[in-house]
Write a structure and sequence with these properties.
The protein is of the alpha+beta class. It has a six-stranded mixed β-sheet with strand order 2-1-6-3-4-5, with helices on both faces. The two termini are 33 Å apart. The mean pLDDT is 97. The chain binds iron/sulfur cluster. Iron/sulfur cluster binds at residues 69, 91, 282-283, 286, 288-291, 492, 494.
Length: 605
């Protein structure tokens, strides 16, 4: 592997960090390797926004090699809203550029005295003043940095005003609207006075056995391009899933209280394609191109929203105005805020307003009427600026609800807002949300795909009815292990690459001789390592739970009356995982079996 560049923003000192060979083999790259590297720095006492909090930008062993959906990287640290392990996967072109500059990661610590940005040109690092960029939105700041470094082909990742003001769900953006959205890594960057990182590289990206890798890469991209799911993603985007999710009763509406949304056709991926879509966009080397480029009345081209943004600012707030959703997504992008958490937290405010828990006195005079686009936009602006009620909302739904002494009303797990795949429609998501290492996450295991019927025989992931419960727990665990491997390679979960091909690519890229079982074992190791980090930071069995709203059956729709039995599912899950059912920790035996001896000592003495 190439080294990781360690940068202390306080002193300006840099150091090339070499990853121990054993860790490379055990964890491969991406998020799992980042977890191993950061293991000893992520303590319970660490304030995620303190200068000493680490922030690791990590690539994977195939990043930039034009393998299937491998133009990605991941940003890791301690989540400011969750206090737990945080990772946020992002596409675009920045990760490949970093590898071409000769580094597989950037490990940032310390806090600069004043706003700065970093300019890494090959192995030459410059620290530049960013006072004039502070306050600029994510698009303007990217362009300005590119102009200043004088390299058109430089890639820039950046925070917006929300990151600067440490909104706890602030994101990091690169290229045209690609986001490390979840877990608030933008706030960590802001707390370090770090506005942007520009990179430019001209090296050949290393691959262990290129002669073997190149034909496999071509073949897997060819298959992926012909894959039906990939075609749907290209044609109508991720929002193509909206109609089916609504039909199943797996698409929550009106802040998770309704299981149906009759105007779903107005906000669907097909509607976007038919009315405002003008082009598609892709991350580096991706043959799927799920990204949307749309035009509204002003004729300016802009990013079109994906499934989560459409659901969050659409049905979640009873809004069926697609163009307004485009604008709200763009507003979040410009501030640099995660659209899932923003829309969820705004939804909570509407919900509490309706219940009379908050009134106009709390909302700066704004009447929160479901579907009122103007009210939604005003709240988003207040959050991005941390003004008025926006300052409270900027702390996320858990803290917002706690402030009004109704914590149980917030639809979040461990401080991360729930995404828009409802476990009452696809029950596997109950375990995905309750046990994810970063809070209520749909990406650590997008099990809704399996509940829709997408199985992987060679992984031992089979189909259970979408409303089956404890019997699918072991299946969910295997799916999590597999997706942990995606987050190590840093692949996109939209790549429907067969596991047989995936393992061949890994072997050629890394010089390994793995089987599918080895791949799953490495995924399991990464999953247990992240659990051990969280256990050390205070997470226990009591943290594995679902919010009240998700346990109340929908009154209508395709899943009316169904209630996830989360306790029964968790019981079977701990069994399948080899975790201690009382404490929620991986057992000593399990940790030793996975070669996590240090973690076994730390958790069990
Ligand atoms: S499928 Fe979409 S998000 Fe995934 S790598 Fe391709 S363009 Fe990027």
């Amino acid at each position: 592997m190439q080294p990781i560049l360690k940068i202390d923003l306080a002193s300006g000192k840099t150091e090339e960090y070499r990853i121990p060979e054993k860790w490379e083999k055990d964890f491969l790259g991406g998020a799992s390797l980042a977890a191993r590297i950061l293991y000893s720095s992520l303590t319970r006492e660490l304030d995620p926004l303190a200068p000493q909090a680490p922030l690791l930008f990590m690539t994977g062993p195939m990043t930039g090699t034009s393998g299937p959906t491998t133009g990605r990287f991941v940003v890791c640290g301690k989540g400011p809203a969750t206090g737990l392990w945080a990772e946020s996967n992002i596409g675009g072109f920045w990760g490949p550029e970093l590898r071409a500059a000769g580094y597989d990661g950037l490990w940032i610590t310390g806090k600069a005295e004043e706003p700065i940005y970093l300019w890494l040109n090959g192995n030459k690092l410059e620290v530049r003043n960013a006072a004039h960029l502070w306050g600029q939105n994510t698009y303007a700041a990217q362009e300005r940095v590119k102009e200043e470094v004088g390299e058109k082909s430089a890639r820039v990742c950046v925070i917006g005003p929300a990151g600067e003001k440490q909104v706890l769900f602030a994101s990091i953006m690169c290229d045209h609207g690609r986001m490390a959205g979840r877990t608030g890594m933008g706030a960590v960057m802001g707390a370090k006075n770090l506005k942007a990182i520009a990179v430019r590289g001209a090296n050949q990206i290393p691959v262990f056995d290129l002669a073997k890798y190149a034909p496999l890469r071509s073949e897997s991209n060819r298959i992926l391009k012909q894959d039906n799911e990939a075609k749907v993603l290209r044609e109508i985007g991720t929002a193509g899933a909206a109609n089916y999710a609504e039909y199943l009763g797996a698409m929550p509406a009106k802040y998770y209280s309704r299981g149906a949304f009759e105007n779903v056709d107005n906000i669907s991926g097909a509607k976007m394609t038919e009315t405002i879509l003008v082009a598609r966009s892709a991350c580096q080397g991706c043959v799927i191109a799920c990204g949307r480029v749309v035009k509204l009345g002003d004729k300016a081209k802009r990013k079109g929203p994906e499934y989560e943004t459409i659901l969050g600012f659409g049905p979640n707030l009873l809004n069926d105005n697609l163009e307004a959703i485009v604008d709200l997504g763009e507003l979040c992008d410009r501030y640099g805020m995660d659209t899932i958490s923003t829309a969820n937290t705004v939804g909570l405010a509407f919900h509490l307003f309706e219940k009379g828990v908050i009134t106009e006195k709390d909302t700066d005079g704004i009447i929160l009427k479901w579907g009122d686009v103007d009210a939604i936009e005003r709240l988003v602006n207040l959050i991005g600026r941390r003004k008025g009620i926006g300052d409270l909302l900027a702390q996320g739904s858990r803290r917002f609800a706690a402030h009004f002494k109704v914590e149980e009303e917030a639809v979040q797990v461990n401080g991360l807002e729930v995404a828009y795949h409802d476990p009452r429609g696809v029950s596997g998501m109950a375990l995905s949300y309750a046990t994810s290492p970063r809070g209520a996450c749909h990406n650590q295991s997008d099990y809704f795909f399996v509940d829709w019927g997408h199985t992987h025989e060679s992984l031992g992931i089979t189909y259970f009815d979408r409303h089956a419960q404890a019997e699918k727990a072991a299946n969910v665990a295997r799916h999590q292990d597999w997706r942990t491997m995606f987050n190590s390679i840093v692949m996109c979960i939209f790549a429907n690459t067969e596991p047989e091909m995936q393992v061949k690519l890994i072997n050629a890229a890394c010089g390994l001789d793995w089987t599918i079982e080895d791949m799953l074992k490495a995924g399991e190791r990464g999953w247990n390592l992240k659990r051990a980090i969280n256990n050390r930071m205070g997470l226990s069995r009591a943290n594995d739970k679902l919010p009240k709203a998700l346990l109340e059956p929908f009154p209508e729709g395709g899943s009316a009356g169904f209630e996830p039995d989360i306790q029964g599912m968790l019981h079977a899950y701990y069994d399948a995982r080899g975790w201690d059912a009382e404490t929620g920790k991986p057992s000593r035996k399990k940790l030793l079996e996975l070669g996590l001896d240090e973690m076994a000592r730390d958790l069990w003495g």
